[in-house]
TrEMBL record:
Keyword DNA-binding annotated: yes
A Pfam family per the record: HTH_18
Molecular function terms, GO-annotated: DNA-binding transcription factor activity; sequence-specific DNA binding
HTH araC/xylS-type domain sequence ranges: 213-313
SUPFAM superfamilies from the UniProt entry: Homeodomain-like
Database matches in InterPro entries: AraC_XylS_family_regulators (IPR050204), Homeodomain-like_sf (IPR009057), HTH_AraC (IPR018060)
Superkingdom assignment: Bacteria
Name of the protein described by the UniProt record: Helix-turn-helix domain-containing protein
Keywords: DNA-binding, Transcription, Transcription regulation
Native species: Brucella gallinifaecis
Coiled coil residues, start to end: none
Length: 344
């Protein structure tokens, strides 16, 4: 089975354009800004990535940088993945939605892409895995793992690193059946490692996680419908309002979860418009909002700018034809072709 590796590097870009280019490369995951402790004028970065089954595998190199993941980044990248990074050189320090974390060589850091964070990295390198949320939760993942660090002192960490590095190395030589089997094993092992002593939690907790995932799948399937509401979910799943709130307590209730998913859908479609004229009232309606004024106000509260302002910025960007549709490897391919054709 042929698995193509996508390689991107600031070294192939004129120095005057490197900062904008690297920001665009990393944009789906976070906003990259200059690290105040770094004297270099330009970003340096290299990415080598490939899609292996449902997992995105890759390696990166970079100079000192600062990363900010806010609501805009969350809507660009999506909520449905965990990013697991093996620190192979350099350090990481950050605030992961209120959790302070730091990682060193040999550690594994975990980011839940549904949450915000700010982090600073020294010059270094990483091996990264992007794992689907649905697969992790069906594998039995418990609790909030955003900002979790698996330290190099833990023998299990070294085992997980060996598995990830081995998968990265042999993936070009595997067939689809082998990839699926190893992929599921990798996800199961990371889930077990992250659950730790919480692996045998009460059955009710596991049931709540399964129920939440079923409800989220239902929301995603009906997000454009104006009839989607707390009441419709209660009727569909035969669940009380109080129980429903407890399941979605960390999301501030299911109504907030629906609203945020609708705003995220509108943001994705707006940023994917590639500079074309977008009728914003129609965009709001197609995302499940019946009132454009209310939509515009909520949009500005979430993203810090009005829909019209973001549309104007997209139209004026040199990257307005490089769209992101949720598929990381495809996005990287589009960036590569935009700058230097379809050569590896």
């Amino acid at each position: 089975m042929m698995i193509n590796t996508i390689k991107l590097s600031t070294e192939l870009i004129e120095e005057s354009h490197r900062n904008d280019y690297w920001r665009e490369v990393t944009r789906p995951a976070f906003e990259t800004v200059k690290n105040p402790n770094d004297e270099q004028k330009s970003f340096y970065g290299e990415i080598s990535a490939k899609q292996v089954g449902e997992i995105v595998l890759g390696s990166t190199k970079f100079n000192a940088q600062k990363y900010i993941r806010d609501q805009r980044s969350i809507s660009s990248f999506g909520l449905d993945n965990y990013m697991i990074q093996i620190v192979t050189a350099g350090t990481l320090r950050g605030d992961f939605n209120g959790v302070s974390s730091q990682a060193f060589v040999g550690d594994i850091s975990i980011m839940d892409m549904a949450y915000q964070f700010q982090s600073e990295v020294s010059a270094g390198s990483r091996i990264s895995l992007v794992l689907p949320r649905s697969h992790m939760q069906r594998s039995g993942l418990n609790g909030n793992i955003h900002g979790r660090i698996l330290t190099s002192e833990d023998p299990l960490t070294a085992f997980l690193i060996d598995c990830a590095q081995g998968f990265l190395k042999v993936s070009p030589h595997l067939n689809e059946t082998q990839i699926e089997g190893i992929q599921n094993s990798i996800i199961d092992m990371f889930t077990l490692g992250l659950n730790g002593k919480e692996f045998n939690q009460a059955e009710s907790s596991t049931i709540s996680l399964i129920t939440k995932q079923r409800i989220l799948d239902f929301i995603d399937s009906n997000i454009e419908s104006p009839n989607l509401s707390t009441d419709s979910i209660q009727k569909r799943f035969k669940i009380s309002r109080s129980h429903l709130y407890r399941i979605f307590a960390e999301d501030e209730g299911v109504a907030t979860a629906i609203r945020n998913k609708r705003l995220s859908l509108a943001f994705k479609r707006l940023t994917a418009s590639a500079g074309k004229r977008v009728h914003l009232a129609e965009l709001a309606y197609q995302a499940g909002f019946s009132d454009y004024s209310a939509f515009s106000k909520l949009f500005q509260e979430k993203y810090g700018e009005k829909p019209t302002d973001i549309r104007n910025k997209i139209q004026n960007s040199i990257y307005n034809n490089v769209t992101y549709d949720g598929k990381i490897i495809k996005y990287f391919k589009n960036l590569r072709e935009f700058h230097y054709g379809d050569e590896q």
